Each structure stands twice: as C-alpha cells, then as structure tokens.
Amino acid sequence: MDSETFSVTNPKPDLRSSKSGARIQKGLSIRLFRILTLLLIDILSLYLALQVAVFYGTPVKSAWINQSDFLILTFSIELCLIAARGLYKAGANRRDYRGLIKSVSLSGLILLLIGFLYEPGSYVSRSTFLLFWICSLVFICAGRFLFESVTNLVRKKGVVRHAVFLITESENQESHISLVERENYYNILGINAPSCLDLSNREDTFNYLRELGITEVFVSWGSICRRFYVCWRFYTAGITLNILPTVSEFNHPKSKIQIVGDMPCLTLPVPIIVGVDFWAKRCFDLVLSIILLFVLSPVYLLISLLIKLDSPGPIFFKQKRIGLHSKEFKVWKFRTMVVNAEKLQASLEEKNQIKDGVLFKMKDDPRITKVGNFLRSYSLDELPQIFNVLFGEMSLVGPRPLPVRDVDRFKQNHFIRQEVLPGITGLWQVSGRSDIESFEDAVKLDMDYIENWSLWLDMKILLKTVSVVLHKTGAY
Question: What whole-number distance in Å separates Cα of residue 371 and Cα of residue 57?
Fold first, then answer.
C-alpha cells in the first residue's frame, strides 16, 4: 500500500484536517489592513465627491442628500459593486482603473433607477448627479494611485511585505528568485530543494516554515511528487501555495496568467496591430541616423584627418561581422589599430581577458594606435556604423554584431541573439561593456533585451549610452 494512503493498522487523520487544530491564515493581518485602508480611501473619496457635487450643483431638496439612511445606501451600492469586481484584492486587481470606472458608473445608473422608482419628482438635480459621478471617478482613482505610490515606497524599504519561502531546483533558482522579486511584494526568507517536501522531510519543513512565520510558499511544480498531498498540506497549514513554471523559458516577461479549463496557464498576449512597434523602431532608426550624420559631419572630417596624421593606412576599417539570421555583412568603423591588426591577433590569443574565450578583449592592446586609443575611450570609432543602420544591416539598439572568429565559437543556445537586428549599442554595452569577463554574462544581457524589448527600452538604452560614453565606462 502507498506510504501516504490511509490504513487500518496505522490510522492517519483526515487529509483535510489541520495538524494542530484551527488556525488563522498566514499573512491575514496584512491583507485585512490593505482592504480596510482601501475601503477608507474609497469612502473618503465618495464623501468628498458628494460634498463637491452638492456645493456646486443645482440645489434640490431631496432625502437622498439630506438623510443619512440614503447616504449609507448610496455608499453601500458603490462599495459593494467595487468589491464584487474584485478591486479590493491584492496585486493588479486593485490597480484596475478601468474596472473602477465601470463599477462607479454602474452604481450611478443603479442609484438613478432606485431614485426614479422611489422619488420620481425630486431625486437629485442633473448637475449634482453628474458632478458626483465625475468627482467619484476622479477621487477614487486618485486615491488608489496615491495608495499604490505610498505602498511601493514603503515596500522598497522592506516594510509591508509577505514573508515567503522558495522551493525549487538549483538550476532554476536564479530565474525563480527574479520572478518573485519582480513583484516588489515579498521578502524571500529562505530557499530549499524540492526534496524538502518528500514524506520523510515534510514535517520538519513545515515546522521550519512555521518558525520563520512564512505566509506564502513558491514551489516549482514539476519537481514535486505527491502533488495532491502537498497541496492539502499547505492548505491546512494556512500557507498560500504559489506554483512556479518549471522551465525558465516559459516565464516570458510579457506573459500573463490566464485560467484555461479551471487551470492556470501562462499566456503571451498579442498587440491589436501586430508589428507596428518594430516598424516604428526602424523609422526611428532612419530618422535619427540621418539627423546624426548631418550634425556629426564636422566630427567625421576631424577624426578622418587625425587618423591620417597619426598612422599609415585607410581611414575606415571594414570587418566581416555576423548579423541577422547569421548572415555576413561588413561593419564600418574608424580605424583604431595598425593595418595588420587581424593577423597579429593570433599571437595575442593567450592574453585574452574573456574567460570562456568566445570574445577577444585585451587591455593595453599593442595594436591600438594613439588616436585609436582616444577614439575607443569615447566609442567614436563606432560612428561610421550609422551607415550600416541606413543600409538596414543594423539598428541603433540591439545585440552587438560579432566577428566570424567569435561566432565560430558559439554554443547552440548563443545563436538566438542572431535572430534580431544587431545594434550599435545595447544592454550589454550600457552594463559594463568590456568589464564583462564572461561571454555567458553578455549573452544573458542580450537575452534580457530581446525578451523585454520595447521602444521605451530602446530610448532608455540610448540615453544611458550617452552617459556611459562620456564617463568612458568599461571602454578599451
């Protein structure tokens, strides 16, 4: 017989019974405090809205304004509809401003109907009703926004957070910690492997969770055996159980939780007009590139003159790089090295400062010229790549295109970065540039950029690039 089933010789309590009698849900005090605070904010907002409406509206003698019983009815209908829509729940629910607008508007219609049936002659003036409706929407939404702003500020200081515990495999710990911390809602007090929920370890684990005061637990679901028993064990312990995706790739930053057939499912929604944001990016690239070429033309001429005076050789350096879909193209740069630099690189490989050897980076590279050293310090050698952007081979922002030598050393998982248009600057470049010692760290930054990409992210990277270049952060 299964070790976790009931037997006559070794009777066990009902699976649904608590091990230590009745107990209050963990973290209930914080949840109640949140609900009561939101209720008070909404009541105050409705009261202020009513006072403004009565003061500025057309005066009409009506029991709905002057008698407390009717005021209580008005507020009760408003608050009940807000609650029925789940707008006092945690997380995104209380930030659902569209839901607030619908609930307040529907309650106004219900009040009009009640007033028409109860006192059709003089319920309330139209101006007073409209002012009350508009002010209710504005004050309630403003109150929620203020509550969110204060709550986020307080939580950043480590207050009003739920104490949580993470149970996941070692290979998924980093991604799962990032997933939980993204909510700015929890304090992770401990992490353990899935084996802590095995039958032999389970009681010790729950005793430990009780001692820590844990209110919620995040569990990597695919790694847990006896799921039915584990669910009930958390349920009867009063600890909220959250299920984490077992594979980090499923945790796309743009995904949302949906309920499909009574089961939670990670869903990646699509925009109303597919692809418009990428074409906006390309238009932005072209327009800004043309402006930059016009504004920086004197700088181009000055740099060209300095390169010619400093060392023999061409002004521009063209190198084969691997771009979109692993296709080769020639990237343009101002020459910063001696003419035979690529041939000399083989003799310098042993001095490579990138640990895994995929990239080649070396401080005090002897091949760099005097003017080249200055150009590299401020990334001025990259300016000709604006022509690559105009030709559609690159973007202003994206993963850097790498030489053939580097791509030949790629592992299979590295090639995902070749599926997007390469860029002059990117998340890697504004996060340390040459100070990054492992190519895996650089790939992770490229992956973060690809997964979280938006036009706003491109703008932030471009602005940060200016600061990084001026401070010569990690440049050599």
Answer: 74
